[in-house]
Amino acid sequence: MIFAIIIGMSLATMIPRVIPAFIVDKLQFREWVNRWLNAIPYAALGALIFPGVTTVKPDEPHIGLIGGIVAIILAYIGLNVILVVIGAIAAVFLLSI
């Protein structure tokens, strides 16, 4: 019985995730829809990161914001992701001492 429940729940979770992967390849969207869909990962990433940036030091939120700005600048000039993260951490560390 437990095994049937596990199989049923795995199918219930897998089917809604797999079907769009097969359907999206067949659909042709307008250009503005493609631009909008391409922006979703960046918006989601920003929504996940921004609250953490503002709460690095809750009593001094500007420190986290400056660290985020440093990360944006380093990423914009094309540095490796590891260097962007290290640069942002270093900025926050230097502002915190």
Short description:
This protein has 97 residues and is mostly helical.
List keywords for this structure.
Branched-chain amino acid transporter, 97 residues, transmembrane, mainly alpha, single chain, Brnchd-chn_aa_trnsp_AzlD
Write the layout of secondary structure elements.
Elements: H1 2-24, H2 31-54, H3 61-76, H4 81-96
Textual characterization of the structure:
The chain crosses the membrane at residues 6-24, 36-53, 65-95. The chain has 97 residues and is mainly alpha-helical. It folds into two domains: 1-45, no CATH class; 55-97. 81% of the residues lie in helices and 0% in strands. The protein has helices at residues 2-24, 31-54, 61-76, 81-96. The longest helix is centred in the middle third of the chain and has 24 residues, at 31-54.
- Basic shape: extended
Helix content: over 70%
Order of helices and strands: HHHH
Structural class: mainly alpha
| Quaternary organization | single chain
> Which residue ranges are poorly predicted, with pLDDT under 50 across at least 5 consecutive positions?
none
Termini separation (Å)?
A: 59 Å
Organism: Virgibacillus indicus
Pfam family, one: AzlD
Keywords: Membrane, Transmembrane, Transmembrane helix
Protein name: Branched-chain amino acid transporter
